[in-house]
Amino acid sequence: MARGDVTSESDALKLISKCPTEEVEKVMSELQHIPDRHRTAAARVWTSRAADVMEVLLKETEQISGPVLKDFDWKVKLVLGSDKVASQKVPLMSLDLTLHDGCREKDVSLEMSSDEVHRLIVALEAAHKAAVQLQA
After folding, report:
1. Average per-residue pLDDT in the chain?
2. 49, 97, 101, 103: which has the fewest C-beta neighbours closer than 10 Å?
3. Beta strand 90-101 with 68-79: parallel, antiparallel or unpaired?
4. For the stretch 42-63, what's the b/e string if a residue is b when 16 or more beta carbons lie within 10 angstroms of its beta carbon?
């Protein structure tokens, strides 16, 4: 909804709910074409319910994203042998992830060789670098 499309109190409330508190005055000045009682009602609702509105908007945004890492545990194991080879001595990393998705948690277990761990670290470093660039 564009700011010029505000024609009713409900439209004004929808518009104001999308703005941070410091922008309310700016939005109110752009609502000059609607009746004073509607602007006053919208401002009253915003000031009294801003925290609730922001919480709902954050929850809606959180639902759009995927699972979030809540906890992890890792171990390094040394495989001394298998059914195919009598003596291997291959290091393996065991990674246990706890993911939070909405109101439920899911445990994921991975086992990786040293090459796979290296590729994972490179991928995580690239993701971190991209996230830092997005924040700048």
Report:
1. 78
2. 103
3. antiparallel
4. bbebbeeebeebeeeeeeeeee
Ramachandran angles phi, psi of 107, nearest 5°: -100, 135
Pair 7, 56 in one domain: yes
Q: To 5 degrees, how large is the angle CA 19–CA 22–CA 25?
A: 85
Together in a domain, 30 and 15: yes
- Could you tell me which residues are beta bridge partners of residue 101? 104
Closest CA to 116 of 76, 70, 84: 76
SS (H, E, C) 77-126: EEECCCCCCCCCCEEEEEEEEEEEECCEEEEEEEEEEHHHHHHHHHHHHH
The pLDDT score that the predictor gives to residue 111 is 92
54: three-class secondary structure by DSSP: helix
Decide which of 11, 44, 64 is a domain's last residue.
64
pTM higher than the cut 0.85: no
